[in-house]
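Record 1 of the preview.
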Amino acid sequence: MAVGGAIKRRLMPMFSGLVLRATVPPLASIFGSGFLIIIPVLERTLGSLSIAGIAGVCGFAWLIGTAIRHNVAAVEPLAERGQVDRTTGWLEQASDLAIAAAYVISVALYLRIMSQYVVEFAISGSDLAERTLAAGAVLLITVVGVLRGFSGLDLMERLALGAVLVLTTVVGGALFVADGADLLGGGLQLPPVPGRSLVDVLLILGGTVIAVQGFETVRYLTEEYDRPTRIWASRLSQLVSASIYIGFVAVATPMMGSVADGGYDATLLDITERLLPVLSVAVVITAILSQFSAATADTVAAHGNIDRYLRGPLGGPLPYLVSGVAAMLLVWLVPTFTLIVVASRAFAAYYALQCVVAARTSEGVPRKLGFGLLALILAAITLLAQPAG
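->
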């Protein structure tokens, strides 16, 4: 009883109203990052072992999250008091630059994903149409940013998150029912495992870091929430997203196109159209809402980071132009699956730097070695991650 009471008291803060509100930005970012892309990537990489892959990715992300949360708890107070040493300060500045680049790349990725779903649903796919729609969306966000800035972002995130959670429930429930019917009828099958080497699989999974990115956003909510609230929000966002990701992948695996030798699925639309075509409308609507909202949020985040280095006459609207032009080039020149890896590499670089900071500022040899090992793995992902296509 005493142990149970202690656990309950320890977990209670995680479910306070303030923490739940603070969980919205990281959770919305995580689902905006990966929900629509993870199934096709895992199908191409692991097939029937997809659930092991997503569990491994989520577990790895949790370890990275411990480094981010350590830095919120331990490094932020030192920085506020001006007690951070020169090397740690340099690493933090390098982290700011890395995350700014990562956000710009993720804007391009989100809008390519959005356009891919819209175009495939409307006209059966056209690369030129996808790039044109994505570029138009980048232009719209950039123009609004330059002329008016952004307001109501929290409301947009809440709406997008609500839409994604509804979609997950509806589509996941439909997949669960279909799996159950196949199981009872003796027709449940699993897709084949692609003939990839272990190194190949690990490099591709490393390229899916973008799918679970978002928990680090708590670092940049300092004006809205105190440190304990942000730390709990980061934990909760990772726990909720991991449970939903693992459950969704589990029920989607038997419905993958490669089960019936129908070829790999390009998007989640391929699965929903085989299962129940009306679900495709919900998928497309959610793709528009979640990806456009996530792109808007990351544009604002990129602006905040870039603006730190373009103070004075170069500040103001210029960061929106810088990030907009860069995102426009990326959506026009880089394929979606390659963008996934490029974005993952950029975020991996940021996480690697944060793990180095955590290793330098943590106490105890095991924690220092653990954060150091994470930094090395993330550095390898930065250099070697590859696309699944």
